[in-house]
Amino acid sequence: MPGLPAFILRRLYVKGSVHNAPTGWSFTLKNTLGSGHAHGLVPLWVDEFEEVPMDKTTFEIDGDTIRFDQVNRENTSGLQMSRSIVISVDGEQLTRGAHRIDFACVVPGPSQIGSISRMMWKAPDGTPATAPGAAMGSHLPN
């Protein structure tokens, strides 16, 4: 199933937006591509080995907070052009330094089966990416 190309997804991440919060951490995406919707989300992965539980991951849009596990074919999530969403993780804060964060969503495909679009942020120090995705910097200051 075709997904959105990584070079397109790279444009969604708001550079420098990854930061720790009192109850975990968050980052921002801004839709600069065009209006669309997802009918599923996939767990975030941190540094390729830590899967973030979907019931601990939320996004905020227009004042509403929605858990990742609440998005499905019957309860889709749309994002209008030029709008931002904040994705937050409830749990441990990120350690200082570079981190790789993988994000994916399920979008309607040509036959409405859907496709997984994945983007990835990698350390700005040039650490090579080993999984498919769009390389973007996410770094908490030392």
Keywords:
13 strands, four-stranded antiparallel β-sheet, 142 residues, mainly beta
Secondary-structure blueprint:
Elements: H1 6-9, E1 19-21, E2 24-30, E3 36-38, E4 40-46, E5 50-51, E6 57-61, E7 64-67, E8 77-79, E9 84-90, E10 97-98, E11 101-107, E12 115-121, E13 139-140
Antiparallel strand pairs: 1-2, 2-9, 3-8, 4-5, 4-11, 6-7, 6-9, 10-13, 11-12
In words, what does this structure look like?
The chain is mainly β and 142 residues long. It has one domain: Immunoglobulin-like, CATH 2.60.40. Helices cover 3% and strands 42% of the residues. The chain has 1 helix and 13 strands, in the order αβββββββββββββ. It has one helix spanning 6-9, and strands at residues 19-21, 24-30, 36-38, 40-46, 50-51, 57-61, 64-67, 77-79, 84-90, 97-98, 101-107, 115-121, 139-140. The strands form 4 sheets. The chain has a 5-stranded antiparallel β-sheet, with no helix packed on it. A 4-stranded antiparallel β-sheet has the order 5-4-11-12, with no helix packed on it. Strands 3-8 form a two-stranded antiparallel ribbon. The longest helix is centred in the N-terminal third of the chain and has 4 residues, at 6-9. It is globular and about 35 Å long. The N and C termini lie far apart (40 Å).
